[in-house]
User: Fold this.
Amino acid sequence: MGARRWSLTDKENDLPQIFAIQLMEHLVVPTFVLDASGVCILWNLACERLTGLAASEVVGTRDHWRGFYRARRPCLADLVLRERSDTIDALYSVNRSKSFGDTGLSAENWCEPPNAHGARRYLALDAGPIFSETGELLAVVETLRDITVQKEAQMALEALASQDGLTGIPNRRYFDQFLEQEWRRAIRDDRPLSLLMIDIDHFKQYNDLLGHQNGDECLKRTASLLSGSMLRTTDFVARYGGEEFGAILPGTDLNGAVRVGERILEIMKASALPHPGINPKILTVSIGAASLDAGTGSPDGLIARADEALYSAKRLGRNRVAIAEPITVRQDTLLTA
Assistant:
C-alpha cells in the first residue's frame, strides 16, 4: 500500500473507520484533517500533488501550514478548531463563510505551495468540524480547490474594466472608486487627503495642428510623465476624461499637493514635448489643487474645488498650480454620506 497518509490514535483494527479514511485519502479533492488538538492526521494524495509536500512530512505534526505558506500562520481548519472566525477577514483575501454554514468556514486566499517554486496559487478553502454522537469535537476537515486560472482571468477582466484603453492608466470609473475609498479613510483616520486636477494646455490647438493620432500619442506620453511624477507608492493618477487627469494623494496636505504639482510642471518642462501652436513651443499643463483636512463635504465636492482651482490656473495664464482652500469634514457627516 506504500506510505500511509493518515494516522489513527486508536482502534487500528476498526475496518469501517479504516475504509472511511482510505476513501478520503483517494479523493480527487485535496484534503487534510486535523484532530481536536490540531495535529494533522490525514494528508491525502491530492493534497500531496497540490502542495508537493509528502504526507510523511506532515502527518503527526502541526506543520500543515507549510503546504501553503512560507511562514507559520493559521490555516482555515485551525480557525475552526480555535473558534476564531473573527480573524478570517484579516487572514484571507475573501471570506465566504456566511453562505457555508453555521459551524464551518469558507474562504479564498493566495498561497505559495512548496512545489510552486515561488509562484502563487489562488485556493478556495472550506473547513468544517466533525462531531461525535455526543457532540464532542473529533476533528476538522479542510478541502482545497486550485482556482488560480479563474482568479487570474477575473483580475484581467477587472484590470480592463478599470483601465483607460488609450493611456493604460486607471480610468474615470476607477478614479471615482479610489477617491471614495480614500475620502472615507481620511475621515476615519483623521488624516489629510489631496487632489490634483490636471489639464493639458491648448490641447484642441494641438489636435487641430497635428491631427488626432498625434493627439493620442500626446495623451499617452503625458499620462506616463504624470505617473512618474508621483512621490509615494500610494499616490494615484487616472485619466479623468479627454485631456484632463486626476491625481489622488492620500496622506498629503495642501502644501504637499502643491509640491507634487510643481514637480509635475518641472517634469513637463524637462520633457520638452513640442506644441507648435503656442509660444514657447512646448507642451504645458495647468493644475488645480484641493485638500480635505480630515473631519463637511464629499468626494464630488473635493473634485469640484480642485476643478475650480484648475480654472483659476487657466485664467492666470496656464502652466501653473492654483489652490483651493482646504475643506474640513466632521466625523458625523460620514454617517449620513
